[in-house]
Amino acid sequence: MHNGFNGFSNFNNRSPLRTLVNPQEIRRSWRSGGPVITGTIIVACAVMWLIEIILRFLAPEAYMAVISEGVVSPSLALINPWRIFTSMFLHATNVLHVLFNMMALWSVGPLLERLMGHWQYGALYLISGMGGAVGLTVWAAIEPTYGWYTYALGASGAIFGLFGAVMVVFRRVGADIRPMLIWIGLNFLMPFVISGIAWQAHVGGFVTGIALTELLTKGIPRLRRTSVATRMWIYGSVIVVTLIVVTLVCNLSNPLL
Questions:
Q1: Which residue range is the domain that position 42 belongs to?
Q2: Sequence-ordered alpha helix ranges (H) in 59-177
Q3: Percent of the chain with pLDDT over 70
């Protein structure tokens, strides 16, 4: 692998959490490849969760408006496409939902951000989250009775994309991926233990993260010597277009269209 993908040996050099709040530390962390984007996502999700809690108790109508306009639903993905992204920063008011997701993000995010670069990592995160929404849409086309009217919120679709990316990278460098497979397997089993988990988004994000990272690390031979940023622009665009096409095809059976 070339350019930014040569930084695998630095995976465990994580910056401390103080980089999330200290401007000087943030600048230093940015220059050294620290988890600035990861930290920003964590802060954004935590702030939104606190806002949800406050609104739920002080302004229930405003809380319902935020949730109803922010969650992603297969039937509304084409009508309100912003939901695909706003849903990644909303969580259930149950503290375990946001806490578990942020812990999972912190466990893999800094590794990938150092390896790929800040903006490329951010693109992977958002595209994987988009893949999670498409996973819900594919399931709606397969199971239209209930699928079109389901909704989801949370960062887990995007995080599962990061899981898939780490798995690809570990395998590429010859690292032992068994611990990662166990961790991923346990996360995939959670919907069978805890009800209300959108496993379809997990699958969609996971597949998207794997596909994009495979292209970045292998892809067209001629492009392997280009920068990670260039490859992300090219392959990220291919994945996004593919996800849009899949969404359009699935929405042929959308009862609201």
A1: 12-253
A2: 60-70, 83-86, 95-116, 118-142, 144-147, 156-172
A3: 89
